[in-house]
Design brief:
Layout: H1 3-15, H2 17-27, H3 29-39, H4 44-72, H5 74-93, H6 98-126, H7 132-161, H8 166-170, H9 177-183, H10 186-195, H11 203-208, H12 212-219, H13 225-239, H14 258-273, H15 276-288, H16 294-318, H17 324-347, E1 350-352, H18 355-359, H19 367-370, E2 377-378, H20 381-391, H21 394-399, H22 401-408, E3 409-410, H23 413-428, H24 431-442, H25 448-476, H26 479-500, H27 509-516
Antiparallel strand pairs: 1-2, 1-3
Helix pairs in contact: 1-6, 1-7, 2-6, 2-7, 3-4, 3-9, 3-15, 4-5, 4-6, 4-25, 5-6, 5-9, 5-10, 6-7, 6-24, 6-25, 7-9, 7-16, 7-24, 12-13, 14-24, 14-25, 14-26, 15-16, 16-23, 17-23, 17-24, 17-26
Length: 518
């Protein structure tokens, strides 16, 4: 391995730690929702808000992080994001009420939005074309590592809360379980901030600011000196002589940008509308709907994280060999199939309480109140939950929903696990990493910051909506219909990918601009 490649990999890995924090911050809430819903007496939309509030401010951050990075530089904005992650982790862990928790989560969302936009942008701007796909995919890899670590730490903290050891009792892992889940993010946030001191500024940003000597020095660490000069000249050619440095959003809507902007918007929507963050943010809740119980649902959430990690690594290994479009096409097709499997699995479920199953429920549930439901069969989860709310108090039905489903449901839980893991694998090997690689490649140098912020804003806005309404959807539409809707969106998206998305592998950013922007 050459010293230039070693340098590029080192810098890409450090910058991609922002992806780790983004993934951790986003999915750690999956273990928290079960505990804050009864503690703060939340409605389903309030529960959705506690999850999606982070994404709302991430969406706002995406509007400004690209343009601000064009003014102040990529590195300064990334360091600010690291600080926001740490503040959010501490504030969330110490939140005394629902509003305080939401505010702390929203502060973290600002860091998420900045890191999500700037990390892949920076990596694309410093990486050679031959390995750019792999380098940018490091960010997605770190996102999924963060997701996996969050699922794992959630489970560990849950188990520590059940321990009788004196040290776990003194640290109050049981009483403060969800607070510990949120607070551990402080450590990687501090590590990220420290690591960014080893990272240089983006050479393409320096070139935009006419700081040629600095840009050439950094490019000389990635390329040979002769190639570095050629790359710098190509950047100047793409920026053009005499053009204003400030780029207005309206330039995205010029006829020349129509194709790349359309592709960017559709891919941004598709990545989220198929429900990936419903799985990552609510994984234990989804598995509890199949009747396996709380502890098992946290274990299966870890499997989601591991699957996501393994197939993201596979995507990184294949993205510069097979190309972007083949991975995207196969993955979106797999997403559609798996969502239809989930819809069929939940549709086949039946819910019937028996005297034996009722006798095994926690003592806090009044058995006499459940007597009218014993022996009655319900064809879907919505009707069954409504019947539970009619005979039990609302807060009791919420607190013990997992136990009440486990006591009544008859369904193929293995099929549900297969569908979820298949969906995550399909996402991780395709639209998860490929979307950000495409975003870093499709748009011209001069407007890349504004363009990625714009499509990232749309992506995050759709993500916010999906997260917000998911608990409400489960409560009102049921699991089967919810996953059927996701599958339909994936099927429509597959048609667009096959017809419109171009292949971008192996081409310089300047070559792609000449081809796609007419």
């Amino acid at each position: 391995m050459t010293k230039e490649k070693r340098f590029t990999i080192k810098i890409a890995l450090i910058v991609a730690l922002g992806g780790f924090l983004m993934g951790f911050d986003a999915s750690v809430i999956s273990g928290v929702v079960k505990f804050i819903e009864p503690e703060f007496q939340l409605t389903k939309l309030e529960l959705g808000w506690s999850v999606s509030s982070l994404t709302l401010t991430a969406t706002l951050a995406m509007m400004f992080s690209g343009p601000l990075s064009d003014v102040f530089g990529r590195k300064k904005l990334l360091k600010l994001a690291a600080i926001l992650f740490a503040v959010s982790a501490i504030g969330s862990a110490m939140a005394p009420d629902f509003v305080s928790l939401v505010v702390a989560r929203m502060i973290g969302g600002l860091g998420v939005g900045a890191a999500l936009i700037l990390a892949p942008m920076y990596i694309a701007e410093i990486s050679p074309p031959k390995i750019r796909g792999q380098m940018v995919s490091f960010n997605q890899l770190n996102i999924v590592i963060g997701i996996s670590v969050a699922f794992f730490t959630n489970y560990i903290i849950l188990r520590l809360g059940q321990s009788d050891a004196a040290w776990t009792q003194s640290l109050k892992f049981e009483a403060w379980n969800w607070r510990w889940m949120l607070g551990v993010e402080t450590l990687p946030a501090i590590l990220y901030y420290t690591g960014l001191f080893l990272v240089p500024e983006s050479p393409r940003w320096l070139a935009m600011k006419k700081r040629e000597e600095e840009a050439l020095e950094i490019m000389g660490k990635v390329f040979s000196q002769e190639e570095a000069k050629a790359q710098l000249q190509a950047v100047h050619n793409s920026l053009g002589e005499g053009k204003k440095e400030k780029v207005a959003v309206r330039e995205l809507f010029k006829p020349a940008m129509r194709l790349v902007l359309t592709i960017g918007i559709v891919v941004a929507v598709l990545q989220q509308i198929t429900g990936i963050n419903s799985v990552f943010f609510y994984a234990p809740m989804i598995f509890e709907q199949s009747g396996i119980g709380t502890d098992a649902s946290f274990v299966q959430a870890i499997l989601v994280g591991i699957t996501n990690l393994v197939f993201t690594i596979a995507a990184i290994l294949m993205i510069d060999k097979l190309g972007r479009k083949p991975l995207l096409s196969a993955g979106v097709a797999g997403i559609a199939v798996c969502m239809f499997i989930l819809a069929a699995g939940f549709n086949a479920a039946e819910y019937t309480l028996t005297e034996k199953s009722v006798s095994e429920l926690p003592a806090e549930i009044n058995r006499e109140q459940l007597a009218p439901l014993i022996g009655r069969s319900y064809g879907n989860d919505v009707i069954y939950k409504e019947a539970l709310r009619e005979v039990l108090k609302e807060d009791v039905a919420k607190q013990f929903e997992s136990d009440l489903i486990k006591a009544a449901v008859t369904m193929n839980s293995g099929l549900i696990l297969l569908g979820i893991l298949g969906f995550v694998a399909s996402f991780a090997v395709s639209i998860g990493p490929v979307m950000w690689v495409l975003f870093s490649e499709l748009f011209p140098n001069r407007i890349r910051g504004v363009a990625i912020s714009f499509v990232g804003l749309i992506n995050s806005g759709v993500s916010f909506s999906v997260q917000l309404v998911f608990p409400w959807e489960l409560a009102n539409f049921g699991s089967s219909m919810t996953f059927l809707i996701y599958g339909a969106f994936a099927a429509v998206g597959l048609v667009f990918v096959l017809i419109k998305v171009p292949e971008t592998k192996g081409k310089s950013l300047e070559e792609l601009e000449a081809t796609l922007v007419k």
